[in-house]
Amino acid sequence: MLNEKNLPNYFWAEAVATAVYIMNRTPTATVHGMTLEEKFTGKKPDVSHLRVFGCIAYVHVPDEKRSKLDPKAEKCIFIGYSSEQKGYRCFSPSTRKLQVSRDVFDEMASWYSPLKVAEDGKARNGDVSSNVDHKSLQLVGPVALHGKED
Q1: Among 1, 19, 27, 95, which is most exposed with the fewest C-beta within 10 angstroms?
Q2: How are the residues of the chain apportioned to helix, strand and coil, as percentages rounded to the nearest 5?
């Protein structure tokens, strides 16, 4: 799951928790085609809320935390499901904080786009995570997108 969305390895615990959450809601042969949650609670689990791990989530910023010209949403990474309340766990790389939200998703996009910068400074297809300092989550080195030079 981490490799598919080019996420850093320090999200491994969130990936495992999400995998277990999904496995508990999928049918298995050990309980004769029922889900584990259905066997435990007696009712079928709702799976309409499942999202793609590592996709982009836009978390709403409340009015009291922004001024008139500030954006109304913050771009975050979806990293799992909350066990305390109904919502999704989202990580904001800009503030390095975890938030629980029930907001909009872009499941086709991931935070780290599949671009790789070659030695000549041109963008190539590949993995941009090699250009990211995962401790600070900031791009390092020269990045020229679409072959344009600054």
Answers
A1: 95
A2: 25, 30, 45
- Rounded CA gap, 27 and 47, in Å? 12
d(CA 40, CA 128): 43
Q: Give the tens place of pLDDT for each residue, 23-57.
A: 888 888 887 878 877 888 888 888 888 888 888 88
**What 3-state class would DSSP assign to 26?**
coil
Number of domains in the chain: 2
5 Cβ contact partners less than 8 Å away, ≥ 6 residues apart: 52, 53, 54, 55, 110, 111, 112
- pTM value? 0.63
- Pinpoint the alpha helices (H) of the chain: 12-23, 36-41
**Cβ within 8 Å of residue 4, ≥6 positions away:** 53, 54
Instruction: Tell me how far apart the alpha carbons of residues 133 and 112 are, in angstroms, rounded to a whole number.
Output: 12
